[in-house]
User: Which sequence fits this backbone?
């Protein structure tokens, strides 16, 4: 049985932990708000870019002259996975779930005899994957999220790297792994193929509905526009993934810290009851001693 | 009531503008083009320059864009711009500083990739200065 003093110091330490977790929860909540706004504000651009590319891709089709980013290299021997995680921990299963998804994919690809290369965005992901696939990591980025949130230029940095690797023929297929933000308590680990460009099915459906069979004029040419748009699209998709991932991170941290705060509260309650009981027991004991001492006289 | 077409100006970080306009002049790569309502569908890339928005037969707003792409159809004109700033918010000294930085970067560029990047920012800076002078 713990002594009263032990219990007291235990309660004090749980109380201070609770203060920390509740402060972290507040911070995460306010950051979440900003990250969520940013992620939502960025969606229109990505959506319109997707529609436009879908249209162009249909126009150009799989002609011989189609850019490599659209048509692919014709092989799928080397895969590049870009994994988006947070720089920091203490956000529940956020990092673990994305790392798990990436690890499963990597193992599956390796089992098929393909070569896998990894780019880790965020410190936690590279720490976790380093142990198993240290040799496969070709680049890592940290400190993406600055004071003012995420800048488009950091997405461009990653995109430039990916495009440069593709130009050099270092990989054939590129997939990005990130947590898609659904709500503050729910994030979905998502894998999305980035290169070669895969149009979304929704667009085709929409195309059919609006019946926009109107022939577009292209200025300069379809190929020139595609050559300009496709690399840009890579940047936009990566930017989108970063924003989604950051909103998810704060959401996950907020709910993790909320749980921690609640658990700390429960623990304080339990410890206080224990403390009061043992204090009472001690007093009763002392009384019995005094009374029996008096009776013996 | 005059006919209008919907102008949508979108940057990677936000939907900047979505409103009906009478006419808008866009700096296309192959030359400026004006977009009026019921314009035939087209997609064009944009060079760094100024978008002029017309209201009542006059230029009501001028926005600088650092390149991007425009999609025009009879109902709307969507412009995807990487960077968009109202011309009134451009600063001459900042543009000048950008120009100098770009020139320095071009000189220091070693790979073709760096060089292309530097040339692009040089174009942007020049276009900003042109936008400010007239």
Assistant:
């Amino acid at each position: 049985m713990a002594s009263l003093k032990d219990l007291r110091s235990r309660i004090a330490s749980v109380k201070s932990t609770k203060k920390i977790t509740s402060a972290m929860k507040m911070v995460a909540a306010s950051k979440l708000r900003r990250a969520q706004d940013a992620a939502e504000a960025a969606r229109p651009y990505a959506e319109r870019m997707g529609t436009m590319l879908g249209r162009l891709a249909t126009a150009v089709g799989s002609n011989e002259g189609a850019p490599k980013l659209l048509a692919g290299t014709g092989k799928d021997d080397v895969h590049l996975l870009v994994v988006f995680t947070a720089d920091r921990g203490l956000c529940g299963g956020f990092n673990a779930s994305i790392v798990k998804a990436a690890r499963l994919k990597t193992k599956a690809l390796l089992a098929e005899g393909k070569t896998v290369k990894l780019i880790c965005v965020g410190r936690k992901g590279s720490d976790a994957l380093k142990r198993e696939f240290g040799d496969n990591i070709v680049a890592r980025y940290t400190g993406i999220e600055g004071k003012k949130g995420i800048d488009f230029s950091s997405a461009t940095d990653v995109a430039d790297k990916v495009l440069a690797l593709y130009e050099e023929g270092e990989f054939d297929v590129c997939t990005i792994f990130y947590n898609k933000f659904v709500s503050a308590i729910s994030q979905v680990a998502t894998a999305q193929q980035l290169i070669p460009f895969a149009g979304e099915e929704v667009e085709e459906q929409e195309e059919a509905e609006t019946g926009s069979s109107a022939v577009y004029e292209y200025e300069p040419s379809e190929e020139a526009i595609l050559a300009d748009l496709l690399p840009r699209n890579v940047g936009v998709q990566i930017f989108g993934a970063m924003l989604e991932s950051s909103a998810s991170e704060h959401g996950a941290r907020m709910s993790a810290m909320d749980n921690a705060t609640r658990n700390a509260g429960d623990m304080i309650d339990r410890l206080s009851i224990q403390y009061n009981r043992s204090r009472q027991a001690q007093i009763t004991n002392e009384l019995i001693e005094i009374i029996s001492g008096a009776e013996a006289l | 009531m005059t006919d209008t077409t919907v102008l949508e100006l979108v940057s990677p970080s936000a939907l900047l503008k979505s409103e009906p306009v009478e006419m808008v002049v866009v700096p296309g790569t192959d030359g400026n083009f004006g977009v009026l309502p019921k314009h035939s569908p087209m997609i064009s890339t944009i060079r760094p320059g100024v978008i002029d928005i017309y209201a009542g037969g006059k230029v009501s707003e001028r926005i600088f864009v650092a390149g991007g792409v425009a999609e025009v159809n009879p109902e709307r004109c969507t412009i995807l711009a990487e960077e968009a700033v109202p011309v009134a918010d451009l600063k001459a000294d900042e543009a000048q500083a950008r120009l100098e930085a770009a020139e320095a970067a071009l000189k220091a560029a070693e790979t073709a990739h760096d060089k292309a990047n530097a040339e692009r920012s040089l174009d942007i800076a020049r276009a900003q200065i042109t936008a400010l002078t007239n």
